[in-house]
């Protein structure tokens, strides 16, 4: 993951200092991650993906595209808007529950979703 992190930074044409400041790290902390001396935390993975529109799957595994495309983001946003517009209470509560999950709870959801996807 450290090599992919460096690729993102280079692609965005940011110095270590600039990149690190955008995700609340020090330059030396980022350098330690890029050199493989320190592991990227879940919290920092989430920050990087949100801040720079990075495809989380690519960051973790190298599969797919480096960045989420605007078309994908728009498709997802349109889906959520349409679903919520139906005013189905179960769906609304499901999305609200998802919005309130912490990192550990998201890990459980990921395992469930991956299991469903593979069936």
TrEMBL record:
**InterPro entries with a match to the protein in the record:** Cro/C1-type_HTH, Lambda_DNA-bd_dom_sf
- GO function terms (MF aspect): DNA binding
Q: Which organism is it from?
A: Clostridium kluyveri (strain NBRC 12016)
Q: Where is the HTH cro/C1-type domain?
A: 5-59
- Keywords, comma-separated and alphabetical: DNA-binding, Plasmid, Transcription, Transcription regulation
In terms of Pfam families, this protein maps to:
HTH_19
Q: What is this protein called?
A: HTH cro/C1-type domain-containing protein
């Amino acid at each position: 993951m450290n090599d992919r992190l460096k690729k993102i930074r280079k692609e965005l044409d940011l110095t270590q200092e600039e990149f690190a400041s955008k995700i609340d790290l020090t330059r030396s902390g980022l350098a330690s991650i890029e050199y493989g001396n320190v592991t990227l935390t879940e919290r920092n993975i989430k920050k990087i993906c949100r801040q720079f529109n990075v495809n989380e799957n690519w960051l973790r595994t190298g599969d797919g595209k480096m960045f989420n495309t605007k078309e994908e983001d728009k498709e997802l946003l349109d889906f959520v808007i349409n679903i919520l517009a139906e005013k189905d209470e179960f769906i609304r509560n499901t999305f609200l529950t998802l919005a309130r999950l912490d990192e550990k709870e998201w890990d459980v959801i990921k395992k469930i979703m991956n299991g469903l996807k593979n069936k």
